[in-house]
Design brief:
Blueprint (H helix, E strand, L loop, with lengths): L7 E6 L3 E7 L2 H16 L5 H11 L2 E6 L7 H20 L7
Antiparallel strand pairs: 1-2, 2-3
Length: about 100
């Protein structure tokens, strides 16, 4: 998304992933606020849920791996592999997400 067209950015921090949702207008901001309120009432929300919601709603997003210093190198490596698979599935395959 072009930096000139976005009016804001919202971060969602998950255990291994940080989502940056880019807001382009008031309509998208309203969708994100409703989504965030719904997340608070659900016991468990997975990364797939956030990826799918962003793609269905047409919300531009980007993700970053969240490295934990208190985790072992092995656990961080496994977490990064899971993160990368999800990112590839939803962002780099044609027809899914944004790059």
């Amino acid at each position: 998304m072009n930096k000139r067209t976005r009016i804001g950015q919202i971060l969602i921090e998950c255990p291994n992933t940080i989502f940056s949702l880019y807001v382009a207008n008031e309509n998208e901001l309203s969708k994100i606020e409703i989504f965030m309120n719904n997340i608070r009432t659900v016991k468990k929300v997975g990364l797939n849920d956030i990826y799918n919601w962003c793609n269905r709603q047409g919300i531009a997003y980007d993700t970053r791996f969240n490295y934990h210093k208190d985790f072992s190198l092995w656990k961080n490596a496994k977490s990064y592999l899971a993160y990368y698979r999800q990112k590839y599935k939803y962002q780099y395959k044609p027809g899914f997400g944004t790059v």
